[in-house]
Amino acid sequence: PAAARAWPAPLDRTLSFHARDLSLRDALDRLAAAARLRFSYSADLLPLDRRVCLSRGAVSVGDALAELLRDTPVEAVVAGADHVVLAPRRAAAELPTSLSREVALERIVATGSAGGAPQRGLAVALDVVGAAELERAGTEPLTRLLVGSVPGPWAWEQSPSSLVARYGSIRGASSFGASHPKVFIDGIEVANPLLVTQIAPEAVERIEVIRGPQGAALYGTDAISGVINIVTRHEGSDGVPRVRVRGGLGMAESDFSPGGALAQDHVVDVRAGSRLRSAGLTLGFGGVGEYVPDGSSRHVLASGSARWVGARSIATATARFYAASAGVAENPLLAAALPEGSLPPLAGGVPDRQRMRQYTLGATFRHTPDERWTHSFTVGIDGDRLSGVADERTPLPWAAEAALRSVDGGADRATLRASSVARLGALGRADLVLTLAAEHSALREEMGPLVDWMHSTGIVAQANAALDDRLHLTAGVRVERNAGLLGGQHATLPVLGGAWVTEFGDATLKLRAAYGRGIRPTWTAAREHPQLRLRQLAPEEQSGVEGGFDLALGRWLTLQVTRYDQLASGLIQRVALPFDAAGAGGRAPRTPYVLQNVGEIENRGWEMAGAAEVGAFSLAGTLALVDSRVRRLAPGYTGDLRPGDRMLEVPARTGSLSATWTGARASASLTAYRAWDWINYDRVALARTFVAGERPPHELAGAELRSFWREYDGVTRLGGTVMLDVRRGLMLVLTGDNLLDRQRGEPDNLTVLPGRTLTFGFRVGF
Description:
This protein is mainly beta. It has 7 helices and 40 strands. β24 and β25 (about 470-480) form a beta hairpin. α1 packs antiparallel against α2.
């Protein structure tokens, strides 16, 4: 600790202050609230996400600041009777620049434990997409952010007319059409994770990602594939309202629309208040024109936040609204592949547009009465409404049948969670953290005239032990009663893991291993289907181990390698059944489907991520190697999979590579990402056979569908951004998306995407 010294007023104020495993940002804010002072500082000079530990019964504000700011290039300077500026030290130039960056293993994350914890002690692989990456990404959808920044999750590029995310792999297969991580927004569970596709980076502080079932012990059922927690921004503007505006306008090339399609995205972000009392509002709208006839899309979003900081408490509130619509367009690839006039006329009542609305409301209160206990309470609700949203999760495209397969209805999920974290032991050699939590959620799902409710209640107990802040052990269990588990059965979800951290010179090495088990109910908002109320389907489960290491060499190099071995069982697939070739009224029939459990699936692979920085240049990349195969079929399964088959739509390899140059007044970045080698249906051939009646109906169902399997090799997607700082507060931005003009190629041979898109825009702040 820093030696006590005589401080000028108001730094000489004495108080009691306890901060155990808090982020530096929260510790500074709580200290300011306790001392009734105002701190001003630049976020560029401080590692605000670094964890700090300080527990003093009586300490001066100056000594507390000196301890918190140790090894940083700033010091406390009195600027008024109640104002302290954390200004650069006179000798700051002599300090290593790495002190001003975010220290990866020391950052405090919300997703690793019920009460927040340093990433250093986590036994699971956790990735954080920070504010700088979000700023560079700009208008990119959430799924593309994950693909470019996190090894393992792979989401297919979706056309603007598709309003639902489509995950191809998250450590292999954990479902069919409903493979998705469990998504939270500031700790509030999202009703349907497949609808969280677009975020405004101005409203988000970071995105935390746990891959695999190891997070289920804390986050419950439906976390079979992993967890995503979107943490919104809650900082103020140091007393002066701040406005940031981002606008972009460009053209998307298209092989199917002469002249291309107009693309635009505009956002206004307003921040007000101090670091102790703050509020923010983000508004945006955008869209893409008709890249194919009738294929335009548009969206609007609004996000609000508020934060209150006290000496021992922090309260935050979140509000979010997102609405999108898209045309119901005829697929030009399908029309070109079939004889003119052979497509069946659509049945009456088919909507001309698809519409989706989503909202989130919630609040979190965190209280630290003393140096040992932290209590947290979260309450919130998330919901959505869908109308005419096309359902493309079947082998045969809807356009080849008589009517649009659409999803209509909505869902609302209320979440109530309370937790208490007790930190036992000393700050020195040994430390023990016990977490107790209870959670209840209620899901209301509406499909046409049907309304159903599903309740879930879970209790969590978890222990984290640390020795010399090097050896970290985790053991925990969640017991949950969920109405979607075959009549309300209980699920026991354990986690067990350990991590060992060592430092040598400027390098830090972390070895980790963990076991976890997750389960997904047969009934979820992401798998809308009335059959779920009629059939006794087993829930989907996944369990297994992961192990690997994280290496950080100063600020120049980081490397993460993970090996996982998981077994999934009970995966639910829509299985096509033989049907009558004669349709009602002379129209083509609709293929009947039934939901069935497949059996056991082995998911094995490697995940690697690395980043290097030299001077103004930085390079980052990810690589995932996946082997997802059928191990055993369930009794009564009549689909097209067989033991030893690779799972459909799961790439064997996925990767990304990003290069960035940052100058004094300009920056440029280039990112490429690609999936290789997967098996999916030849949907063009399926549609042609179906429409022309070339084969009897029973050959377009069950095992006969194997003849329509084909291998896909994938295409490389390339995007780039150039930013020029014209004057203080004004920046010009040129963005290029799909620079190689790949308008088709994944995940099947019918998906059409906008081509090369160049957007010119600006960012201004005042």
